[in-house]
Amino acid sequence: MISNRVAPDFPANSRAFSTDDSFSGWRRSSRARSIHLAWRGCRGYTSGVRPRERARLNQVVCTLEGMATLLRRTPGGFAVVIHGDRDCLNVLVQGMDGPGTDRFYCTNLSEADAVMGRSRARLERCLEAVCGLGPDVVFLLGTCLSTLLGDELGSAASRVSASTGVPVVALEGAGMRFVSQASVVDRHAGLMLGAVEASGLVPDGRSVTSVNLVGFDPGREMIDLLGRLGIEVNSMLGLDASVEEFKRLPSARFNAVLDRELYGGFLEEASRRFGQRTVQVPFPVGHRASMEFLQALAGAVAPDRTLELVDDAAGEMGRQVESARGRVAGARLGYNIGSMKNLEPRTLALEGLSDLPAFEELGFEVIVLVQGDDRPERIEAVEATLEGFGCRAPQAVFADTVQFGRLCQETGCDLVYGADHLAGQMAPSKAGFLAFGSLLPGFEGTARNIERILFALESSRTGGLP
To answer: Of 198, 214, 243, which marks where a domain is finished?
Structure first.
């Protein structure tokens, strides 16, 4: 059974804003245009490699590539300045032909600029020019080159912000190091938090039963059920949330996440700056996880409310789960982790295990199919990481996608839940296949999930994919 560690976290240093007053709107600080944040990263970002990262269960990524990908899809009237050589931006923007690419600018450093010490001056001129276009905020991203040159992005951001009145939020580059996708997601949320502070907007008050859902959408049904329990969803801060949506962040008392460590730096800063509390919840996929999702938030935010208010929605799904267990009995599920590079919090949370409870409650015998190298020290880290989440299922490791189908065959899988690109690698296995993320949240989603799972499973038993 997967442990989602749903107990709320009430940090001792919670402060900054009162949690006793109802939210009554915003006021703009008189210092709004002189506030800026040179985001070099809080302790959560600079304390070194997280223990889970040694298992490498989410694939590494270039920091700049990851941040550019996320900022391209983030709505808002902001601009992005990349401080590096021209190839950094040229490589990133190729293929990024959708909306959002027109907000990217680059200092286009040449070899002569780097060698002759002209990079800082070029950065400030570029920032001044971009600020002159009138964006709401400018995000300044460092690169390997700017890190090696030692250019202080924070001081440049401060000077230009003070002279132009446009908030500039800076993030240092990784300095020739690849980082995990989880770290990029955390840093993206950190940039949005920096934009909130740089805007100069502060809340006059807040609702004591309001919560931000950070990095996930539980579906309309779950939001409505939270409403029955007296819990208000203040904002949903996923990867597609706009800067304006993030400006609502401080008016909630709680931040709910699927995985505290996924958003470690962001949550630490939200607690320090806004006195917010964190509660970890399971992703509400399946009957049991949906109940635990509601229980976790009710226990932290509205402990005086009873879950009897949602019993009518939960009861029927519980009966359907019990009925399905008889048809699943004896079936083996291959649950794939470590194969995706999509920067999605649902994929990254709990190192990809967030959907496993939906299969466990149906009675599947589980084997975890882990992509990556099989060095003993890495296998040991994988086992320790999974056990830390309460997952004691056996594991099988494959290095390359071409090995995946044979591994599924050799391990006797009847059904596989994995990265979508692995569907084309299933031969010679005859196991059914479901793509990760295809399961729907909530009690209503549980019924459709059961139908989909049983169809895929029974198709494999009759000798072919659904």
So the answer is: 198
Domain membership of residue 43 (yes or no) is: yes
pLDDT band at residue 107, thresholds of 50, 70 and 90?
very high
Query: How far apart, in Å, are the Cα atoms of 75 and each of 65, 79, 80, 235, 242?
Result: 18, 11, 13, 15, 5
Round the average pLDDT of the chain to a whole number and report it: 84
pTM of the model: 0.85
Average pLDDT over every residue of 100-127:
90
Tell me what the mean pLDDT of segment 196-222 comes to: 84
Least reliable range by pLDDT among 15-29, 232-246, 249-263, 306-320: 15-29
Beta carbons of 143 and 82 less than 8 angstroms apart: yes
Torsion sign (Cα): 377, 179, 69, 72: positive
361: its two tokens: 């409650």
The domain of 341 spans: 315-461
- Which amino acid would we find at residue 375? R
Q: How many CB atoms lie within 10 A of CB 417?
A: 27
Mean pLDDT for the stretch of residues 174-186: 81
Helix, strand, coil percentages in the chain from 3-state DSSP, rounded to 5: 45, 20, 35
Helices (DSSP H) in 178-263: which residue ranges? 181-198, 220-228, 243-246
Closest by alpha carbon to 281, among 260, 251, 305? 260
Helix (H) or strand (E) holding 415: strand 415-418
Measure the CA–CA gap between 182 and 22, rounded to whole angstroms.
Answer: 34
Asked whether residue 210 is domain-assigned, the answer is: no
Please give the single-letter amino acid code of residue 271.
S
End-to-end CA separation in angstroms for the chain: 28
- Residues with Cβ within 8 Å of 396's Cβ and at least 6 positions away in sequence, in order, are 367, 368, 369, 370, 407, 411
| Number of domains making up the chain | 2
Distance CA 154, CA 316 (A): 56
Q: Map residue 96 onto helix, strand or coil.
A: coil
- Using the structure block, give the residue that is written with the tokens 């009847």: 414
**Which candidate, 241, 138, 225, 135, places its Cα nearest to that of 185?**
241
Give which of 385, 384, 411 is closest to 396, Cα–Cα.
411
* Cα–Cα distance for residue pair 14/11, rounded to 1 Å: 6
Q: Cα separation of 426 and 312, whole Å? A: 40
Tell me if 82 sits within 8 A of 89, measured CB to CB: yes
By mean pLDDT, which of 45-49, 63-67, 385-389, 432-436 is the weakest?
45-49
Which CATH number goes with the domain that contains 183? Answer: 3.40.50.1980
Q: Using N-to-C axis directions, what is the helix angle for 220-228 and 287-301, rounded to 10°? A: 40
